[in-house]
Specification:
heterodimer; A: 119 residues; four-stranded antiparallel beta sheet; 0% helix; globular; B: 110 residues; mainly beta; three-stranded antiparallel beta sheet; 47% strand
Chain lengths: 119, 110
Amino acid sequence: QIQLVQSGAEVKKPGASVKVSCKAYGYTFNTHGISWVRQAPGQGLEWMGWISTEKSDTKYAPEFQGRVIMTRDTSTNTAYMDLRGLRYDDTAVYYCARAWIASDSLDIWGQGTMVTVSA
Amino acid sequence: QSVLTQPPSVSAAPGQKVTISCSGSGSNIGNEYVSWYQQLPGKAPKLLIFDNNKRISGIPDRFSGSKSGASATLGITGLQTGDEADYYCGTWDSSLSVYVFGPGTKVTVL
């Protein structure tokens, strides 16, 4: 069964960093990239960026450039999203989703990881 | 503020039809494929339609997608209570170099 399984909820202080993992099952990991999307409470979906699992190329949304780093580990079929300098408005559910290329539809989604930024 | 526009909500009785519009511009919908996502309450989004009008395997043909110019439409016929969800359109914006989502439309079954 093709699925993406994400790491558990996190609570972080303002200014800290958070690293969310996304482990792929049921398909060849390096045939599709991984996009990251977040959703603040009661709000819509916001695309953060995409990483090629084959070559590790990345494409970040401008508003996250310089604050986000996306990586992958092909030995464990896992993608990671590291967000630094956390602010209160970074409180959101973070999703990973499979996407062949950055501009492609997101066909398989992880279950989401709640990140709460609180002093 | 999204570059795509969707109505905040639509509603209809069970068995009826609803349509959800998604309007953009030439830098996104006008020249790119559109996808539609369904998000049930408390759940992760799920891809329903890709490449404007192709249904993902397992999605009933009650769901349909179309595109004309810089606008796209999702149609749901034979509305069921299980269809109550938020629906988002999504596409690539070549000017912004980002994947953009519409603000979402809440479907209510009366």
